[in-house]
Amino acid sequence: MQSEEYWDPKIELMQRGELENLQLKRLKYQLRRCYERSAFFRLKFKRAGVQPDDIKKLDDLSKVPFLFKGELREEQRRYGVNRYIIETKNLREAYPTSGTTGAPVLSFWTDNDKEYIIDVTARTLWSMGLRGEHKVQNAFTYELWAAGFSIHYAVQKIGGFVLPIGSGKTTLQVKYLIELAPDVLVTTPSLALRIGSRLQELGFDASDLSLKFGAFGGEPGTAIPSTRRRIEGMLGIEAYDYFGMAEIAPSFASECKEKAGLHWSEDYHLIEVIDPKTGERVEEGEKGVLVITHLVKEATPMIRYWTGDITKLEYEKCACGRTHVRSPQGILGRTDDMVIYQGISFYPSEVEEILREFPELGPEYKIYFENGGMGGSSKCVVEVEYNKDLHIEDPSKLQEIISERLYDSLGVWLHVRIVDKLLTPYVGSKIRRVYH
Predict the structure, then answer these.
(1) Which of 430, 363, 433 is nearest to 218 (CA)?
(2) How do residues 190-242 score in pLDDT, each as one tens digit?
(3) pTM of the entire structure?
(4) Which SS3 state, helix, strand or coil, does residue 67 take?
(5) Most-buried pick from 154, 340, 378, 399 (CB within 10 A)?
(6) Where are the domains of the chain?
(7) Inter-residue contact 155 to 130 (CB < 8 Å)
(8) What are phi and psi of 136, to 5 degrees?
(9) 327: closest CA among 400, 269, 396?
(10) Under a CB-based contact definition with an 8 Å cutoff, are residues 101 and 308 in contact?
(11) 317 near 299, Cβ under 8 Å?
(12) From residue 111, how far is each of 45, 89, 116, 123, 366 by CA, in Å?
């Protein structure tokens, strides 16, 4: 039963030893299910020389091979989904991945899967302050993107009111923010910035809104301090980072009111951070690739799923009292979004952190490579639109200043171009920033 502060205090305040005992019990059962019921997992485990009985403690999970999205794509292409669906009874829904990195992969929900997903989503929303008296403008897409539905179901479970507006439709978003007067906005950081810009264009400002807070996920942004400040300033709210993925659960990690990083739901998911070069777990506080194992998912459980997201973990109890492990700076980037230029590697989020410091710039930007022509080397270009509400006296001078700031931060010179208008397209429900 929820309390004023916690959705499920017994779980959220569980001591480390008790939590790990619960994880081990669920992990053993999950591995046994996968081995016995799935030809896909059984073959994968046998090739690695591991059986479920080999896992006697949580650290033994390192014996189990990682699961990559490419494997699931190939499995689905060759055999369909039948070989890796573990539980076929009571299947209720299926959702594809976004398709930003390749062909979408389907994830299925049973009745119990749906119940756990709604529960963990309600937990995240409750931790940010959502209560039964609140109205939510849900601007996550409802077009086969699971997060739109998980938010919808969870708001209703809490007892709140939800407007299923979906993504995009920036002017319509503004219309309902004014007319319906919702308390909460749930969307991507990029759409939040577009909504803020549209509000300004239409002559509104934050004081015209009734919003109290917003939950922003689906792409990096809210954990970037300068982006968070801009969203909060434009919309007059507290902005919280949110994380999910269709393969695992669409909305299962979030910040609490302390804004001290993503809280992971460790009763439902076993969280690891792995060094991509060695395949070994990194020490607490070190960066690596996020790897997640389902502990209760029935239909399509993921075992040591290699997410491609870069993060780090902190086990110290949060000031809010919750004991589950956190990622103090959220998701730092993705392995497939990393840019390598002149021997220096960086993520779009590091560029965004600098761009958001300049009020003269608008919300849209992209990073791409431009060929230097015959005999010329390619150059990395950061193209960003200017803020139409502010007049730029000398764009070329501002470009130089931004290039210098990027060099100071990244250690490499990028070519900055300020343009009148830039339309950054979405791939599925997520915005695309890097063009290789």
Answers:
(1) 430
(2) 999 999 999 998 999 999 999 999 999 988 889 999 999 999 999 999 999 99
(3) 0.85
(4) strand
(5) 154
(6) 1-336, 338-435
(7) yes
(8) -120, 125
(9) 269
(10) yes
(11) no
(12) 27, 9, 9, 19, 41
